[in-house]
Amino acid sequence: MTDAAIQITDLCKTYAGGKVALDHVNLTVPRGQIMGLLGPNGAGKSTIINILAGLVNKTSGSARIWGFDIDANPRNARNSIGIVNQEILFDPFFTPLETLEIQAGYYGVPKAERRSIELLRAVHLEDKAHAYSRTLSGGMKRRLMVAKAMVHSPPILVLDEPTAGVDIELRQQLWSYVRRLNEGGVTIVLTTHYLEEAEELCDRIAIINHGKLITDKPTRELVNMAQEKVVEVTVDRDLATLPAHPQFEKIEKSGERSLKITYLKNRATAGEVLNLVQSEGFAIVDVSTHDPDLEDVFLTLTRAAA
Predict the structure, then answer these.
(1) Distance between CA 212 and CA 224 in Å, rounded?
(2) Where is coiled-coil annotated (predicted)?
(3) Quick one: 148 exposed, middle or buried, by C-beta within 10 A (0-12, 13-18, 19+)?
(4) Claim: this prediction has a pTM higher than 0.70
(5) Are strands 204-209 and 187-191 parallel, antiparallel or unpaired?
(6) Is residue 1 predicted with pLDDT exceeding 50?
(7) What is the model's pLDDT at position 226?
(8) Non-local CB neighbours of 165 within 8 Å, separated by 6+ positions
């Protein structure tokens, strides 16, 4: 056994026609963490997930799930992971309860050990247990997909864009459930285009672009890579000309008396920037700052790799 929940080594996938989806990807998902797998559309995220799910054959390389090689021990590997795909996949004519019971049967879960009602309660669908699944809202269907992925109590849950099209309240309920699962020991792998969610939820983040892994770091360390910071300053009079200084990466007017100044954290501090503005003869009336976030880092890294 290994300490990694998922261990991917030199994973490659080339589709018919020569399209390279994955190019020697090496990735370790630590046990017990929430890990974000981010990247632009077409970067290769879903290909990784589909290989782990057994839906796509890799070209070369290896992958282990909870210590089980997906080629040598495919049954044990697949029993160790639950995957919530982007697409909503279940029979619309079954009820949520029937959907979970059938899925549990596929995994060989004995009837006495099934947790269908418990899972529906956890995703706030207990009152819909006997309704046709086709009558559920989009957000409810998403939550049913999460419950469906957990019927065999896997130690790893993969969520591929789980909040796409889900309103804010249902999104918060879903993340609350995901956090409870993680606190109970379940390792979570998350793909999302909502970068603020990834920054808030994930212990670690990997970014993939054009089939290559371009970074894999703890979330806070990754965010701290961003060097650009913005100070917005309101001064005491109208701006006929803009103050200029080599310390300013960029300066622009945001109002008749307002400036938006971009600088690099490794070259200046906010205090130094304000002193430079004052040295030009302006009195400062108000100040606000914008700290770099995951979106800033994401755009910097993916543009550099383009």
Answers:
(1) 22
(2) none
(3) buried
(4) yes
(5) unpaired
(6) no
(7) 73
(8) 138, 139, 142
